[in-house]
Design goal:
It contains 19 helices and twelve strands. It is α/β, with parallel strands linked by helices. The chain has two domains: 5-137, no CATH class; 163-432, Rossmann fold (3-Layer(aba) Sandwich). The strands form three sheets. A six-stranded parallel beta sheet has the order 6-5-4-7-8-9, sandwiched between helices. The chain starts with a helix and ends in a 5-residue tail after the last helix.
Length: 433
């Protein structure tokens, strides 16, 4: 029986808002029973999948953040980690666009099945029907890349390094005998080149000036490291290139070398963006500089080391402590408009803060770093803030839950904080504590 005209119009409006594929278009623009008749072969296959669930759980899903390298790498790696040892489970994934890095895509294909989106879409649309509940067989993606999965087993991906060593040998750089580090400073150009018609101006507060990493790059060069300026489609070339400081992003970048450098570097210096995500899946040490918001950085593994952007309140004419950052609801805030609305200036790390953090990070990796009292106090304060975020509302809305997931908290349980920050940074900016 046909729906009432009013209900049908509502469904069409919903379809216009949600239409991502032809299957959705048909579902929202045809009477439901006619849709099911047209999709009889799909319905039959879906019934078989449901029957097989007594023996094996088959799940399907379309990954909807393919364009963003951070989400693509970290979210799918997490999905693989969570399901790696589940023998009675098969996951079939489609991407909503071209992979941002084809080499990483090839790595993931070693562990998970990818099939065309047009094959999976009809099964997802079936879940809309009141006659057919398919929710159990849909993949639940975690789109929060700050989530702490360090307690899950690491994944070993097969990757041939030889081409990378040969490429740099031709440039006179022997990376088998020399240590190297990747440095990345986020800018807006990569996102502008995504061509997905979205406005990402709200994320500009996360950007950093590559020139503030000059002193650090030169220090590492003097210590015998090669330094590779990492990135893709960057706005500017670096002005401090040398024989051992290579502007890889401007002159050599490709998908294969992105993986090669990320996998083989001694450590990666980034600022909490997608560029460092490839190093993360290879469990490389990461120094996160210019990180904001603070709350998202707290639950990383033992190979992370942090310094943060500072928040200056233009009304009160002072830098904010972490308690004040929390009180102004900026502890987890990822929207730059919120900072503007509250008249807050987000201030980058200085050259000396980045340099000293790098020196301490090398000591940390060598086992000779000793935390100062500020580090312990800072961690304790952050722990109290996280407890407050959980306890203030037992029935948290979805936004609050997402914020906590970004902080690495699952099921409202706070693990001991693993954050280690730079002694120099915390001592210099004592107002934070």
């Amino acid at each position: 029986m046909f729906k009432t005209e009013d209900n049908f119009i509502k469904r069409i409006k919903k379809g216009i808002e949600k239409n991502k594929n032809f299957s959705e278009y048909l579902y929202f623009n045809l009477p439901e029973k006619i849709f099911i008749i047209l999709f009889t072969p799909i319905v039959l296959i879906a019934c078989i999948i449901k029957l097989l669930s007594f023996f094996i759980n088959i799940q399907v899903g379309v990954f909807e953040r393919t364009a963003r390298i951070g989400h693509f790498v970290a979210d799918l790696n997490l999905l693989i980690k969570e399901n790696l040892n589940k023998k009675n489970k098969i996951i079939l994934i489609a991407l909503d666009g071209d992979p941002p890095n084809n080499e990483v895509y090839e790595l993931f294909k070693q562990k998970i099945f990818f099939i065309p989106k047009w094959v999976i879409n009809p099964f997802i649309v079936l879940n809309y029907s009141k006659y057919f509940n398919f929710k159990k067989h849909l993949v639940n993606f975690n789109y929060h890349t700050g989530y702490d999965y360090s307690d899950l087993d690491n994944i070993t991906y097969k990757f041939n390094d030889q081409k990378g060593f040969e490429y740099f040998n031709k440039l006179g750089i022997d990376l088998k005998k020399n240590k190297f580090v990747c440095i990345y400073a986020r800018d807006q150009n990569y996102i502008k080149n995504l061509n997905n018609f979205q406005n990402f101006d709200h994320s500009e507060f996360r950007n950093a000036d590559i020139n503030n990493y000059k002193t650090t790059a030169q220090y590492l060069e003097a210590e015998g490291y090669y330094v590779f300026r990492f990135g893709k489609n960057m706005e500017n070339k670096i002005s401090f290139s040398s024989d051992k400081i290579i502007d890889y992003a401007s002159f050599h970048q490709n998908d294969y070398l992105d993986v090669f450098l990320s996998k083989n570097c001694e450590f990666f210096i980034g600022n909490g963006s997608g560029a460092e995500s490839i190093s993360r899946i290879f469990d490389k040490p990461i120094l996160t500089t210019n990180f904001t918001p603070i709350g998202v950085s707290l639950q990383k593994n033992e190979k992370y080391f942090c310094i943060f952007k500072k928040l200056f309140c233009n009304i009160e004419k002072k830098f904010l402590s972490i308690d004040e950052i929390s009180q102004k609801h900026l502890f987890f805030e990822y929207d730059g408009a919120a900072y503007q609305k509250k008249n807050i200036t987000v201030v980058e790390n200085s050259e000396d803060e980045i340099l000293e953090a790098t020196k301490e990070f090398i000591m940390y990796l060598n086992g000779s770093f000793k935390e100062n009292v500020e580090n312990s106090l800072f961690r304790d304060k952050c722990f109290k803030i996280l407890n407050h975020e959980i306890s203030k509302d037992k029935n948290m809305d979805s936004e609050s839950q997402n914020n906590l997931r970004y902080a690495g908290i699952r099921n409202k349980q706070i693990k001991p904080l693993k954050l280690v920050a730079s002694n120099y940074f915390l001592h210099k900016n004592k107002y934070l504590i």
